[in-house]
Amino acid sequence: MTVDNVAPLVVHLASSACTETRQIFSVGCGHVARFAVGIARGWCAPPTVDAPTSEDVAANLAASDLDDLAFPESMNDATRFVARRLAEVP
């Protein structure tokens, strides 16, 4: 895990041939891969609840499994994702 392993990606990203933007990469030991931060579908408290309790969260945390992740490209995308989920709550 030396600079020699990271420099090729840095050179590529700085080149005019690179079309990658808004990406995160994991680099080391000759391995280069995109790194993603995703958001799970999760659980939404019913609109009749002012604020969920820690017991509510504990009882519903399983709804945050990682089977169906979304990959927002910005905080605006993440906010829209949450807004859509809130609109689905009966």
List keywords for this structure.
37% helix; 3 helices; elongated; 90 residues; single chain; alpha+beta
Structure write-up:
The model has no long low-confidence stretch (mean pLDDT 89). This protein has 90 residues and is an alpha+beta fold. It folds into two domains: 3-35, no CATH class; 36-90. The protein has three helices and two strands; from the N terminus they run αββαα.
What is the number of strand segments? 2
Mean pLDDT: 89
How far is it from the N-terminal to the C-terminal residue, by CA?
51 Å
Count of spatially separate domains:
2
Class from secondary-structure proportions: alpha+beta
Helix/strand order: HEEHH
How much is the radius of gyration in Å? 19 Å
Provide the helix percentage. 25-40%
Strand content: 5-15%
| Total count of helical runs of at least 4 residues | 3
Strand order within the widest beta sheet = 1-2
- In the predicted model, the low-confidence regions spanning at least 5 consecutive residues are none
Q: Biggest sheet, open or closed, and with what strands and sense?
A: 2 strands, antiparallel
Note the overall shape.
Answer: elongated
